[in-house]
Specification:
The structure is a homodimer. By secondary structure, chain A is α/β, with parallel strands linked by helices. Chain A folds into two domains: about 260 residues, Nitrilase/N-carbamoyl-D-aminoacid amidohydrolase; about 190 residues, HUPs (Rossmann fold), CATH 3.40.50.620. Chain A is built from 18 helices and 20 strands. In chain A, the strands form four sheets. A seven-stranded mixed sheet of chain A has the order 5-4-3-2-1-14-15, covered by helices on one side. A six-stranded mixed sheet of chain A has the order 6-7-8-9-12-13, covered by helices on one side. Chain A is elongated, with a radius of gyration of 26 Å. At the A-B interface, helix 6, helix 9 and helix 10 of A face helix 6, helix 9 and helix 10 of B.
Chain lengths: ~550, ~550
Amino acid sequence: MKSFKVALAQFSPHIGDIETNVQKMIEQANQAKKQDANIIVFPELATIGYPAEDLLLRPSVNKRTAQAFEQLQAVKDIVMVFGFVNATEDGQRYNAAAVMKDGQILGIYNKQNLPNYSVFDEKRYFNEGHQHLVFEYLGHKFGVLICEDVWSLNTVQQLAQLNVESVLVLNASPYEVGKPQHRIATLQELAKQINIHVLYTNQVGGQDDLIFDGSSFVINNTGEVALRAESYKEQLYFVDYEVENKAYKTVETAPALDTMAEIYQALVMATRDYVERSGFPGVILGLSGGIDSALTLAIAVDAIGADKVQAVMMPYTYTSQISVEDAAEQAKRMGVTFGIAEIHPIVNSFMQTLYPFFGNSPADATEENLQARARGTLLMGLSNKFGNLVLSTGNKSELAVGYCTLYGDMVGGFAVLKDVYKTIVFELAKYRNSLSEVAVIPERVITRPPSAELRPDQKDQDSLPAYDVLDAILYAYIEEDQSQEHIINKGFDKEVVEKVIKLVDRNEYKRRQGAIGPRITSCAFSRERRYPIVNGWKAGN
Amino acid sequence: MKSFKVALAQFSPHIGDIETNVQKMIEQANQAKKQDANIIVFPELATIGYPAEDLLLRPSVNKRTAQAFEQLQAVKDIVMVFGFVNATEDGQRYNAAAVMKDGQILGIYNKQNLPNYSVFDEKRYFNEGHQHLVFEYLGHKFGVLICEDVWSLNTVQQLAQLNVESVLVLNASPYEVGKPQHRIATLQELAKQINIHVLYTNQVGGQDDLIFDGSSFVINNTGEVALRAESYKEQLYFVDYEVENKAYKTVETAPALDTMAEIYQALVMATRDYVERSGFPGVILGLSGGIDSALTLAIAVDAIGADKVQAVMMPYTYTSQISVEDAAEQAKRMGVTFGIAEIHPIVNSFMQTLYPFFGNSPADATEENLQARARGTLLMGLSNKFGNLVLSTGNKSELAVGYCTLYGDMVGGFAVLKDVYKTIVFELAKYRNSLSEVAVIPERVITRPPSAELRPDQKDQDSLPAYDVLDAILYAYIEEDQSQEHIINKGFDKEVVEKVIKLVDRNEYKRRQGAIGPRITSCAFSRERRYPIVNGWKAGN
């Protein structure tokens, strides 16, 4: 044999739907076979999808997995390597990979390194494996690793000592900014160092707050990248191993994306998968004339198409004419259904009802929140009536400091920009505008000073530091977990830092009730930042 | 020496506030000394409190812990055994106990068994210890264990083989129904079996969704209970070891509580601790005339006093006169501030604004939700203006099947009955009424058929099965994690079971945005039931 062909199935499972996933796996295996692949590699836990969370504890997982095996055994003439839940007779449960050919199981591998930090909770569900799996096929020696395993030098070195030529790595590695390139760069070094070919197959698709970018790849033992799959796309990729050259033949590879393209496409896929897999016919969102809702609108349209997107402008006394015009203009440029709903009568009816209780109390944030909640309730009414999902439009900077109204602008099932800092919102808006001849987001939406328009002449910067300063402090505190003292020592104003950190700490209760949204940073306000609400911690040194 | 005295500090830490906790520990140690105690035992992780979650990852935990040690070293003439975060120089972090006397550290113990299931995530934060700690003092041989350790027969037997006479167990063991008695019954057997005295000190207090009941105890190696501390009370308890008898002298012990008393007091403590530790001046809640809000009101009053509780009735067209009367009567009997806010004008203004969008669409749940959201917004307005925390009043049965309105009746910071099934709500109402001569909850609130009053003549049982059936199905599905097939085979109607399970599965998105509330079951909708929102799992066999 002069060569063999490996298919990397950059696969998008529907979490928990083992039956459908397995049908898709069979189809993909047959398709790979038609294209003369000898081996097909699926991602980590492909049968149930990642992360299935407590579905892994359901009593029938084992029975369903056994049925999946039966069905997969019908596939002939191709070696399938796929992730599954391995429940053994002694009551252990493993995050495992099976190597199957013509209905025979050639080997089972149990993941050895179980991540239990950041967004990962694998020790809640799985036991650790302690053995390597090596199989020879077509005169070539393969090893199998699962995700975290390949980041443990110790594990990889042990495997290499078994004279493995190619390691098949099954992954469900969540996206964060720069991660696609980071994985490749790290494993290029590793492949060279230990003289092994690395075939890295990653899950693709959005799952709740997690984005799996795919971005699968093949690296030769020289460190050369033989294949780089597109990000955010479910597809089969193929590489040929040439025996004479002892290397995988380089095929045309997807170029690495610029940062803004990478983030934008991540948000688009996450939004599409959330909407479609939850079965919503479309989405609805409030357009304020500001940049956050404008960007959310563009992402929604790119995700599911303009015909499935409804936008509503809900002006009040403090809404400027510019905002109304810009909202209408955005909707027009994007081609979505657009409506205007004045909220004066609603806010007035609330105020009249509350007046006897409020007495002579001076106006404060209460009145501002009433506006936001009138809007939230209108959006929910439209959502309830026609079934569209409400997208909330707040960004990470706002959510961090609580500059948002619970049950108001926080209303919604999916918060598209939840993990996007305001400074990045601006960049993404410019990026999106660069994609078409006519800017879909009117220029002045990007250039005018941000305002919540809940008070006369209000500007965000009246209550918050400038966004570049705010975001830098937030990044240091949240992503880098730096102390208050440390951040002040970097040169930021002491009072500003103290205020920002206090706001972050105090607003955990708000974030806890917020919609989920796609994670693009290394520390989103989601499953990886677990702070108590009642909390006596005092920032300081 | 004929005897020595051990103090069990049933301690209520403020999570994350190391400085305040340590000051309290010093005071309690000094108080114990005054009462001639030779040893004082604090709970697990007493310095930072349990669970501190990702506060454990803050960069200054080590420095703050070092400061805590310095302060504790000032305590003289009593042995202190306390839980703390042990960060070692090799970068490991342990859930540890220190034995300290006169400023000297006599020993450090690192917890060996780290729970990482249910509500526990200890493997996210801690490394496992591998060594026992035994110390001799006053001619007596003591061992130290931390919480989960004592449930591992293997660990306890190893310790017993070191000829330990008394084991000091430091705990942060969360409450669930029946747990106080269960702990004692299990450890009575163990104490006899391995011939060891068990001194069990538990944390007390509410922390977000978790309730620590205290209920500390001492069991002699005969299995005899020498001390049983009161539940839900922060206090020092003392036992004397009599050398001649080789046993702790039995002291008057708190009687075990009846189930309803146990649950009721748990909810009262949880509510008090949440309100007070979050710094709210009081609470506000909507009274509907129904049993859920009536019970929530009673718990709130018992927790923080009638003068800090504000109740509002918000009637609409479908609200019966009985409901208005009963709400007013409840408020009067409990002595709380009461107001009525009609929501007609608000609902009308919403409908008028939405009419152009709705067209001729028939009325459905949308209109019902508007009523609930008008009420939620009113409560939030009053909360924003005067600072009181909104208590939400929904129960577990409703929340399970989504019989509640997001941003409507789900509004609030703390959901007192979140983990209380409707059938238990009835029992708790009767229990509370039994405590005073005049029933605080009018009888007909308990006896009339439950209704959300969102449609004319609506009854809960129009859309849901009878609550005893519903709760039995929910219990089997949620608490016992049984399959749909299994539940049907128990004799429940197939269609009903399928409908209920579908509702539970579909409403994860709602629960995810709900307020936290105190956990009293073995599977609350909180940190221990982690289901994906986007989820293709199909119930079945």
